[in-house]
Amino acid sequence: MNRIWFKRFGWFHLPVSWQGAVIVVLASPFCLQVFVAVDRHSHSVSDTLYGIFPFFVCCFLLVDWVGARTSGKVN
């Protein structure tokens, strides 16, 4: 059974089912928690950006990968 969780909208994947919404809802607090934890100990904006970059990129790539795999066929 091939369910569609996300729909491609430009460069992004938007959730169209509850499973896709769960993925986005789990990714958002993770990114917020990382931002707060890194920003608490950084001394400048660039420190914060360098600290959150690896976590945000991995999280967004994972969401994009799941979105690409569950958005149906690309013609």
Give the SSE layout.
Blueprint: E1 6-9, E2 12-15, H1 18-41, H2 45-69
Antiparallel strand pairs: 1-2
Helix pairs in contact: 1-2
Describe the structure in your own words:
- The chain is mainly alpha-helical and 75 residues long.
- Helices cover 65% and strands 11% of the residues.
- The chain is built from two helices and two strands; from the N terminus they run E-E-H-H.
- The chain has helices spanning 18-41, 45-69, and strands at residues 6-9, 12-15.
- It has a two-stranded antiparallel ribbon with strand order 1-2.
- The protein starts with 5 loop residues before the first strand and ends in a 6-residue tail after the last helix.
Which key phrases capture this entry?
elongated; two-stranded antiparallel ribbon; mainly alpha; 2 helices; 75 residues; single chain; 11% strand
Secondary-structure class: mainly alpha
How would you describe the oligomerization state of the chains in this entry? single chain
Total number of helical segments? 2
Beta content: 5-15%
Main β-sheet, spatial strand arrangement: 1-2
How much is the average pLDDT?
Answer: 90
End-to-end distance, in Å? 20 Å
Work out the radius of gyration. Answer: 15 Å
Low-confidence stretches: none
Give a brief rundown of this model.
By secondary structure, this protein is mainly α.
